[in-house]
């Protein structure tokens, strides 16, 4: 495969040339030109598929190159890297010379439950999800009529979500402030707003309006992607509480005059060490060892425990599905609070001995 820049009629264009050997060993190729590099990159892998004798008999290694290029161009770089790593490790070595249309449910089942026998059920479920999406693209582009991964299930025990209770929140913030921990402001703001780590990293003073009492959350940062949209690609508003306002005012007073970001960007945060640091500190002070993202879960459960409606919590934290927020409702136990009072079971009381009382009266 090759991509090069060419001048055609005085205009810069991008030329793609791909070649493969057919089943008889004969070398065949295709050459096309495009106005933009993005179009050329997308076409480069697609042409490999088209060069197969029969589109319905596209070879996996050609097809998956096309799919990965599609993900690289259309999705976040971290998503592309995750798909590439999983496909390269588990599926490509086994299916590389196999026709896409010849892959059966039994082939998928074998990879997930035999080749991946030593990985966790959560990893298996993630791999199955990825390969299902790949086959869905094959259906969309006419290579398949049925997804061979459909109908295969991986059962996983529900993951335990660690959260802090109200007393533990107070201990964490008190001890962190007492020890002047460098992450004290980060933990505090996470607990007060429920913002994700990447959203806090991107938070600027220009996003904070103390007059109207609102924070605009529109950006998030990751190590692989840099700064971009939030996880759901939607902006949202956080209504500043009185405690949050007080904390932000204190933070603003202590920050550098020309500081753009609300929170300092320490090296440990940039390297993704924030989860490990929080867990270690929690163990040190004797509370539930939570990670940074668990502070968001703590915020959500505290909101629900205090009677904030599900729809409002969903809007504040930016969940794209009500089902996600409902999972935290179950975690908080708010939805079943008081239900056991309806049992109406009476526990027998200890009988009170009156002998001494009677005998005293007789005397």
Describe, in plain words, how this protein is organized in 3D.
The chain has 363 residues and is mainly alpha-helical. It has 3 domains: 1-36; 52-159, Tyrosine recombinase, N-terminal domain (DNA polymerase, domain 1, Orthogonal Bundle); 166-334, Intergrase catalytic core (hpI Integrase, Chain A). The protein is built from 15 helices and 8 strands. It has helices at residues 37-50, 60-74, 77-95, 105-115, 121-140, 166-178, 184-193, 197-202, 242-254, 267-270, 274-285, 292-305, 310-317, 322-332, 355-362; strands at residues 2-8, 11-21, 27-34, 208-209, 214-217, 220-222, 226-228, 236-239. The strands form 3 sheets. It has a 3-stranded antiparallel β-sheet with strand order 1-2-3, covered by helices on one side. A 3-stranded antiparallel β-sheet has the order 4-5-8. It has a two-stranded antiparallel sheet with strand order 6-7. α7 runs parallel beside α12 (292-305). It is globular. The chain starts with a strand and ends with a helix.
Write a brief caption for the model.
With 363 residues, the chain is mostly helical. It folds into three domains: 1-36; 52-159, Orthogonal Bundle (DNA polymerase, domain 1); 166-334, hpI Integrase, Chain A (Orthogonal Bundle), CATH 1.10.443.10.
